[in-house]
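B., you asked whether I could sanity-check this one before it goes into the benchmark set. Here's the sequence:
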Amino acid sequence: MLTAALLCLIALVSLLLGAVLALPITVRASGHVDEEGLGGQIHAAWGWGVVSASLSPQGRDLRLFGLALPRRTRRPRPGTTRETPRRRPKLGRVLEQSPVLLSTFRRLLFALHASGSVEGQAGFDDPADTALAAALVRWVASAFPAPIRIAIEPEYLGPVVRLRSSLVLRMWFGELLFVSLRQFARRDVRQAIKTLRA
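And here's what the prediction gave me:
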């Protein structure tokens, strides 16, 4: 009797683990930045809507099989805690390791099956800063695969930021786990992470 119950428990855990690894997660996000401020929303669903969550300026929503779950309000904790400042990697080290980091980033992005766009105009007071930012945007855009489009036009006439973005991710935990382990098993990736943390 005990053996049969144990086998049923193992089978149930294996079934749940297989579902987590095999069923897709879909994330849809959109946002904008302009003179009026920031705005956006995000929606995530696992297993074609078995579990879903939404977050927007109007609030958040969590559902299970389409039924809304009650939200728990957090009570503020008394007192404040001081956070230990984290040491940031130097820009020179980041640029030195950028080929390896970009290659890893692209492979992880493919595993996320990402598509989307960032479009709009941006500029600073100094045209030289605008030109430098435009060159940086072109460099970043070249690192993204074709389904992601970055089209930010430089605005040299004055400081302005008008951006709108959209993003769709469709991922499987099994594939993402496999690709992540394969990337971090590479010696050059481990060396790049070690260099950035030094």
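One thing to flag: Strands lie at 24-34, 37-46, 51-56, 59-64, 67-68, 115-123, 148-154, 160-172. Otherwise nothing jumped out at me.
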